[in-house]
Amino acid sequence: MFRFSFERETLQTEILDATVQKIPFLRLTIAMALGIIAASQIQIHFGVSAILLIISFFSLLFLNKIYQYQYTILFGIGVHLLFFFLGTLSFELYNKKPLLYKNGEFLATILESPQKKENSYKSLLLLDTHLNSEHNEFSEINEKVLVYFETDSNVQRLTPGDEIVFSKTPQAIKNNGNPFEFDYKKYLEKRKIYRRLYLPSDRWQKTNQKKSYSLIILAERSRDKLLRKYRKQNLGEKELEILSALTLGYKRELDPEIKRVFSSAGAMHVLAVSGLHVGIIYWVLVSFLGFIKRKRAGQFTFVLFALFCLWAYAFITGLSPSVMRATTMFSFIVIGDSIKRHGNIYNSLAASAVFLLLINPTNLFEVGFQLSYSAVFGIVFLQPKMSKIFTPNNKLLKYIWVLLTVSIAAQISTFPISVFYFSQFPTYFFISNLFVIPAVFLLIPLGILLLIFSAFPLISNILSVIINSLVSLIYFLLKEIESLPFAVQKISITQNELVFISLILIFLSLLLKTHKIKYFKMTLVSILCLTSVVLIKKIHSRNTNTLIIYNTTDNFIIHLLTSNKTNYVISDKPINNNDYEKNYIENTIVKMNLNPAQFLQTKDSFLNSDLFMKKGIVLFKEKLILINREPHKLPDNLHPDFIINPQILLNDKSMPPNTPVIITNQRVYRKNNHLTNQIFNVSNQGAYQKNW
Question: Which pLDDT belongs to residue 343?
């Protein structure tokens, strides 16, 4: 019995090793990813990474020359080290900041068509030339800058490739520093954007030059032309926005309500051009031109034509980073599929990941990159196993079962990442995907046909009616799903919890593949670690009260959190659901797993077991807080723990020593030497937070 068990486990190990051997790029991808992570956490000079990379390379050449069987392990270690240092070097080189010029005049190229905002137009500039007025020196530069134009008719006429001249210095991008806030600064840094500026109408001027040699600019212009064709058709406003996002990846003008409905119903992934959209294009090609592959010469012809069509589709969707990621990934899959080797789909995925990380190592930290690869892996690995659970005889039932298993497999594999980043889980995703995915399979070809036949009124009108009806039906059904009870579950996990949940899924996958007891044990250990992390977090939160003063522009907001999940929001003005500040509060509530907040205003009077509040005096969990009050007018026996926006200028020596003074209103702030260490300026330093 023991011998049989040992032989069975040995056989399973050999099968797993053989499978891994057929996916060499998987190990190289992991090694490179570890190098990128190491470089992102530890400041490594690119010169050191380059030297270590060269040493690894020549060591491998030497080992290859004197290669013997006993050097196999050393050679394997050397290859992994080579890709590890390749990861560190590529990260350091990619994230090297450009020289940021100040003062003088700038010549810049418009990269994106200006997008209408509430009080301005938003676009992206590429700074080409800097003129130092003092020394009359020209310098060629290459820096992307986020720009906000003052609302003006001239801005609306700007198109990608237009050149402008301005003399205002771009400013460094800063976050507001609020708890659990989206790190917009880091998000832009990954796209090599470090500064932004606001240009009034009288501070910039368009030149007569126009750049057209950039592939990105040509792609942006092509998409603008196609969008204008859509706008000339008989499409509803919402239908136009959804169709533009589905087929051309244009989401800049997408209504927030549409985003909310799709997100809550678990269908947000169809609004961003991804592997699904590129896969549909490939499916159309295989369906209509697959017969070409039957001959040996035709196989090569089909692959070339398929790659051309995929990249042509990427071109008309603007060549955005997410589009190029999806197209690159699928290009490797197409090439790998033509080779037709067992396990080649995994190797193709890993090879495309290595390629993408070489071009842009910060892809590793992109949500889209992580979701794309985890979703495709889930579909490739889990879906075939899930589909075998039930085998319907009816064709319609079989089709529905395949869609259902694909949806569930993708959701399982992406669950930890999506919950970590978005803090929500769409309960009825499996229902929405049953009709959304088939609809997208129809809408993308129909949308492309509408562009092709836009000059023929009869055909374009028929296509417009069909598309309008189909998109309206989808949106109606998604709204109905969104309105169902418990449609969205608010869930929050920390980075440590994400790691252990991911490990559980990985070990369960390996257990499913090999049936080895060691993976069962590793799964149990990961579950134990996850449970411990969750318990520690709960114990810590139960013994902690918190004061948060948010960094906001139009309203003064304090958030008081108790150890029993009760929380109170105090503001100068009422907070509406549409106010941007509401997002800050909701983020804190979801991330810290709190009860719904009780909203108050600074003028209110309030009393319960947690909070006393009257005329700017707040007593919360044994801490005395003054809001818009002068501390020296308090009775002698009252000593404030926090002073927020005192009405007097801060030059009064009677200010209580060592008491934090938090300023949110610049008008009451004056620099004073004896109070400098006490003052916390929220607008400059970010949100104020204190636990006790």
Answer: 52
- In this model, does residue 473 exceed pLDDT 60? yes
pLDDT at 668 over 60: no
**Cα distance between residue 393 and residue 399, in whole Å:** 10
Q: Check residue 488 and give its pLDDT.
A: 92
**Pair 91, 124: CB distance under 8 Å:** no
652 band by pLDDT with thresholds 50, 70 and 90: low
Q: What is the pLDDT of residue 16?
A: 46
- For the record, the structure tokens of 8 come out as 């069975």
> How is the beta sheet containing 688-691 ordered, strand by strand?
598-601, 567-571, 557-561, 546-549, 688-691
Q: What is the pLDDT of residues 237-252, one digit of tens each?
A: 999 999 999 999 898 8
Q: In this structure, how many other beta carbons lie within 10 angstroms of the beta carbon of residue 376?
A: 26
- Residue 381, token pair as written in the block: 């690995």
Residue identified by tokens 């006790």 is 692
Residues 6+ apart with CB under 8 A from 121: 114, 115, 148, 149, 151, 152, 155, 156
Predicted confidence (pLDDT) per residue in 1-14, tens digit: 434 343 444 444 44
Question: What pLDDT, in 10s, does the model give residues 389-441?
Answer: 888 888 888 888 988 999 899 999 999 999 999 999 999 999 999 999 999 99
Q: What is the DSSP string of 162-176?
A: EEEEE-PPPEE----
Here the tokens at position 435 are: 């009709």
Q: Which residue has the higher pLDDT, 671 or 70?
A: 70
**Whole-angstrom Cα distance, residue 565 to residue 563?**
6
- Inter-CA distances, 530 with 137, 231, 466, 494, 518, Å: 60, 51, 50, 11, 18
Residue written as token pair 């209110």: 604
- pLDDT of 6: 36
Tokens 């659970």 appear where? 389
Dist CA 611 CA 220 (whole Å): 55
- What burial class does residue 553 get, using C-beta atoms within 10 Å of its C-beta: 0-12 exposed, 13-18 middle, 19+ buried? exposed
Burial readout 289-325 (b: 16 or more C-beta within 10 A, e: otherwise): eeebbeeeeeeeebbeebbebbbebbbbbbbbbbbbb
- In which residue are the tokens 């790691």 written? 499
Q: Specify the DSSP element, H or E, that contains 572.
A: none
The predicted model gives 562-586 an average pLDDT of: 90
Residue 365 has pLDDT above 70, yes or no: yes
pLDDT surpasses 70 at 648: no
Contact (CB, 8 A) for 101 and 134: no
Give me the residue label for tokens 């029993």: 564
- Tokens at 462, concatenated: 């028929």
CA distance 268 to 396: 26
The three-point CA angle 676-678-679 to 5° equals: 70
Backbone angles phi, psi at 138, to 5 degrees: -100, 140
Give the DSSP H or E segment for 447. Answer: helix 429-452
C-beta of residue 329 within 8 angstroms of C-beta of residue 275: yes
3-state secondary structure of 599: strand
Q: Any idea what DSSP says for residue 579?
A: S
Distance CA 188, CA 145 (A): 10
Paired residues of 568 in beta bridges: 560, 598
Beta carbons of 112 and 160 less than 8 angstroms apart: yes
Confidence at residue 684, expressed as pLDDT on a 0 to 100 scale: 87
